[in-house]
Design brief:
Radius of gyration: 18 Å
Number of helices: 8
Helix content: over 70%
Length: 214
């Protein structure tokens, strides 16, 4: 991804998310809730399977670190320092993007305190639901999006020929957050922007070649 592409995506994303939060998130979410209930079992089962696999990789530790992190670190050392291959640096970019995206998402959740759609479905609330006090106030942004998109987006940029299959898993997760009524569109979109931003930042580690991709 080039600097120009990243800036264009940012110029589109930030105003669009603000517009969604202020005016469109609630009607879009209500429409999805009313018309896609039939698909909830599929997305729920899919997300649960992905979560089980991810949690296993995070709760199983090697040398005090999650096995997922250790695996990516191992690929970095093997590729970068032993085999002298570019994919070693890519493994490090995936790891750093994943940690930073998930961490930032969690920090923002604890700062913004946005009410989840389930509160809207159960009777509604005034305003945008931001900085709300009480339960179910951790909607913005979507941590599920940050977790899964961050593991695949750097790979999709590095291997454009495999971009579509690489993005199927996180794409279904992201769509599922809307269908299941767990998040608003802006929650998902902003998390995707976080991943894109961190991927662009950490891809500078691979300069002058960078992560290529459209």
């Amino acid at each position: 991804m080039t600097l120009r592409q990243f800036l264009l995506f940012t110029a589109l994303t930030l105003p669009a998310c603000a517009l969604l939060i202020l005016f469109l998130d609630q009607p879009i979410t209500l429409f999805i809730h009313r018309h896609t209930g039939w698909a909830e079992p599929f997305f729920s089962a899919y997300t649960a399977a992905a979560d089980n696999a991810y949690e296993a990789s995070m709760y199983t530790h090697v040398l005090g670190l999650p096995v997922l992190w250790m695996g990516l670190l191992g690929l970095f050392v093997l590729g970068r320092w032993v085999l002298k291959r570019r994919w070693g640096t890519l493994a490090l970019i995936v790891l750093l993007t994943h940690i930073a995206s998930q961490g930032t998402s969690n920090v923002l959740k604890g700062t913004v305190h946005r009410l989840r759609p389930e509160v809207l479905f159960s009777g509604g609330y005034p305003g945008t639901g931001l900085w709300a006090v009480g339960p179910h106030n951790d909607s913005f942004p979507s941590t599920h999006t940050a977790i899964y998109f961050s593991l695949f987006w750097p790979l999709a940029l590095a291997f454009p020929r495999w971009r579509v299959p690489l993005l199927v898993l996180p794409g279904i997760i992201m769509l599922g957050r809307l269908v299941m009524g767990a998040h608003y569109p802006s929650d998902v979109w902003f998390s995707a922007w976080l991943v894109v931003a961190y991927t662009f930042l950490f891809s500078l580690l691979d300069k002058p070649r960078g992560i290529r991709g459209g």
